[in-house]
Amino acid sequence: MAIDSKKFSESVERVLHADFGCDYESAGARELYNAVSKAVMVQAFDAWNEGRNSQKKRCCYFSAEFLMGRSIYANLLNLDCLEAAKKALEKVGHSLNDFEEVEDAALGNGGLGRLAACYLESAATMGIPLDGYGIRYRYGLFRQTFVDGYQHEEGDDWLKWGDPWSVKCERDAVIVEFADQKVKAVPYDMPVFGYRNGVVNNLRLWSSEPVQEFDFNAFNEMKGDRTALENFNATKICDVLYPNDNTMVGKILRLRQQYFLVSASLQDILRKYKAQGKKLKDLDKSYCFQLNDTHPVIAIPELLRLLKKEGMEFEEAFGVCSKVFNFTNHTIMAEALEKWDALALSDLLPEVYEEIVACQHRLESEGLDTDKYYIIRDNVIHMANLAIYVAAKVNGVAEIHTNILKTDVFKNWYELYPKKFVNVTNGITPRRWLLLNNPETAALIDKYIGEAWHTDLKELRNLRPHIPEMLPDFKRIKGENKKKLAAYIAEHEGVNIPPEFCFDVQVKRLHEYKRQMLNALSILYFYFGIKDGTVKDFPPTAFIFGAKAAPGYYNAKAIIKFINEIARLVNEDGEVSKVMRVVFVQNYNVSYAEKIVCAADVSEQISMAGMEASGTGNMKFMLNGTVTLGTLDGANVEICEEAGRENNCIFGATVEEVAAIKQFYCPREFVEQDPALKRAVNTLIDGTFSDDAGMLQKLYDSLINGHDPDRYLVCFDFRSYVEAKEGLLHSYGTDEFYTKCLENLCAAGKFSADRSVTDYARHIWKIK
Ligand code: 26Q
Looking at residue 222, what is its pLDDT? Predict the structure, then answer.
């Protein structure tokens, strides 16, 4: 199956000649990157076209985000070209490592966007016809640096090295119309390769262009119509990804992006469908559309509009929509559920607005309680309600999350449509998140149970009897991964962490509900405890953080500053730094995650119970043999079910307890009763840390003072957290500890995205 390295080398050389006018000797890393990629593309072209032209029922995954990361290694792995490429490069004095400079395609914020990327890969691997539809942002998620401990943002020029994995399809361009603007939507297609099975699915990313060539003269003279300005603004739509995660920003440009994505996609799909001579009323026999959260939900009224333009009555069009659309919810947080001002939407998209109103009228005509069931209320459009009303299926992303949707967030809707609500627990692709990022551990597993687990992750259970035998090799490999990470961190962050320390890791977006603050306070607790002798024999530990804060999220940025100050305090302390280091890595992204996940000993998953819909980082760590220190939240619950609670470390209030505590909660009481907690919290205001911006004071206030202080129960869970953590860290390094790591790895089968997409295909998309 693997491609012959000589042939591969020759086809790379042909691209070097034709596209770059150079040969192996004169080529630099950039030319080689593009040539290797293009050589792969050429080889895969036929299989790719087969998928694109297929007439079988397909699912279209509509998502504002696809967090693909770097494609080159994953694609070479899946096409079984890694070895061939390695040899070809080494022969000419280069190596695959040269491509470590290639920018990630960070066209997503975090969990939701990365999930979309994992699902594309898994679907291709499972032979499920799933295509992605998204936006080709010119700039992805910002690059993060720290200046004096504060986060700074820079534009993410992800195309710096070129984009050899995309093909521009000019002939599939469509026009998208807004009330004030007409733009051309041009698709760029990216192949999605299944793992060594010859399947190639497609990711279609839309870019906006002026309808006509830009006319500078008209622009300068501001001639009659508004064409010139329209053209000028056209490209702006896809300029940049909104850097918010789990909070909604009500910006009209964001709505433009969403409509641009779905209108272009639906026009494209309907055109192709009609060209096959099929009837619009049978659309569901050929297509279904998965709406990745509310961001693409405006696809519903847009499809209604398009079907009516084709002559269909509203009721029939509604019937089609109720068969083709499905909706995934990823968050219960009120501030993340999308709502749009009715006036603003009707100004921008009058015809689409009419269809939303028609849905509202249809809902009213069903004689339901209008206090409980509405799409538009008080001139606000509730996108989630629209999705639930119309979609065939609505799903949450972990058992506990789906239950909260049913009993709380969407309780009324669940009572009306109990059969609509289903759970599909999230998953991750084991190709990127074990085979690729941790090849030595993968090879060790192969040695014991063969390779079937590559595409059937439940097979990992067969490793269990071998755990005792595997311990020494597993430890050695983990140790090597830690050395590599330590070297990388030393180079990029200027912080030295001894590889023999326990690596305790919290990497994810920065959000108060995820409680990086709880972790930070525990570090201060240990720090002061070591200093005054109340914490004895502290097990040497490196606390590693990685997270981006949304640029407008004040408290999140303050938490970054706080942790960076803690890092300085600890690392500069001659005594404490013998047993403790703290580092907040800059610009945490998919590629950084690949390096961190394989080197972690402890995985921090410490959100307030009920808040983290699922989490997927937790799964990545588990698969790489890491113990979870976490609350009973999101997929942590299922991780414990699969791996055994005794193999992880669970603490803190449960969802039920959270609800009860919130009734009478007063964080100040917890702080007053617990001197060690008080000392840690007071560092925010007692001058321990420098902070000219006054951010830490505000952080203190949000914890202790003001309205609804400590919303996420940091102070409440503090004691149970530090006790659990201290116990876990003390067991680090023992055989018992590494056995737990391996028990987790063996139990990770459920969390394969292969299982998730198969669940979707069976129960939601009805594709076999
Ligand atoms: C909405 C409107 C305007 C601007 C931005 C947004 C926006 C963007 C991104 C709202 C939310 C998001 C991202 C949400 C997200 O990533 N949720 C995570 O989804 C994961 C995959 O299901 C889960 O594992 C996480 O628990 C959940 O937090």
Answer: 62
Beta carbon of 397 within 6 Å of any ligand 1 atom: yes
Given a cut of 60, whether residue 554 has pLDDT beyond it is: yes
Residue 246 pLDDT greater than 90, yes or no: no
- Spatial separation of the C-alpha atoms in residues 732 and 649, rounded to whole Å: 12
**Residue numbers annotated as active site:** 330, 508-509, 514, 616, 620
CA of 488 to the centre of ligand 1 (A): 29
Instruction: Kindly calculate the radius of gyration of the chain based on its CA atoms and give it in whole angstroms.
Output: 26
- Output the six-digit token pair for 161: 């090295």
How does residue 754 score in pLDDT terms, banded at 50, 70 and 90? Answer: very high
Q: How far is the CA of 336 from the centre of ligand 1 (A)?
A: 8
Cα distances (angstroms) measured from residue 595 to each of 366, 369, 436, 526: 54, 53, 10, 27
Closest CA to 540 of 492, 575, 490: 575
pLDDT at 350 > cutoff 60 = yes
Q: Are 312 and 358 in contact (CB under 8 A)?
A: no
CA of 121 to the centre of ligand 1 (A): 20
Quote the pLDDT of residue 207: 98
Stretch 745-751: mean pLDDT? 98
Closest residue (by CA) to atom 15 of ligand 1?
A: 112
- Tell whether the model's pLDDT for residue 214 goes beyond 60: no
- pLDDT-based confidence at residue 45 (cuts at 50, 70, 90): confident
CA distance 272 to 616: 35
C-alpha 486/C-alpha 145 separation (Å) is: 19
Distance CA 684, CA 87 (A): 54
Token digits for 324? 């083709």
* pLDDT in the model for residue 586: 98
- DSSP class of residue 761? I
Q: Does position 248 have pLDDT exceeding 90, yes or no?
A: no
Beta bridge mates, 135: 206
436 contacts 77 by C-beta, under 8 angstroms: yes
Query: 232 CA distance to ligand 1 centroid (A)?
Result: 31
Residue owning the nearest CA to atom 8 of ligand 1: 245
List the residue whose alpha carbon is closest to atom 10 of ligand 1.
246
SS (H, E, C) 500-554: CCEEEEEECCCCHHHCHHHHHHHHHHHHHHHHHCCCCCCCCEEEEEECCCCCCCH
At residue 203, φ and ψ (nearest 5 deg) are -115, 115
Using alpha carbons, list the distances in angstroms from residue 519 to 522, 544, 746.
5, 10, 28
Please tell me the predicted confidence (pLDDT) of residue 44: 87
Task: Report the separation in Å between the CA atom of 429 and the middle of ligand 1, taken as the mean of its atom positions.
Answer: 19
| Cβ(328) – ligand 1 distance below 6 Å | no
Regarding the beta carbon of 331 and ligand 1, being less than 6 Å apart is answered: yes
pLDDT value for 3? 76
Residue nearest to atom 14 of ligand 1 (CA): 246
Side chain identity at 580, as an amino acid letter? M
The residue to mutate among 141, 255, 293, 399, having the most atoms of ligand 1 within 8 angstroms of its beta carbon, is: 293
For range 315-333, the mean pLDDT: 97
Ligand 1 mutation pick, 112, 122, 590, max ligand atoms within 8 A of CB: 112
Fold annotation for 430-743: Rossmann fold (3.40.50)
- This prediction has a pTM of 0.97
Interacting residues of 203 by C-beta distance below 8 A, sequence separation 6+:
66, 68, 120, 131, 132, 133, 134, 189, 190, 191, 192
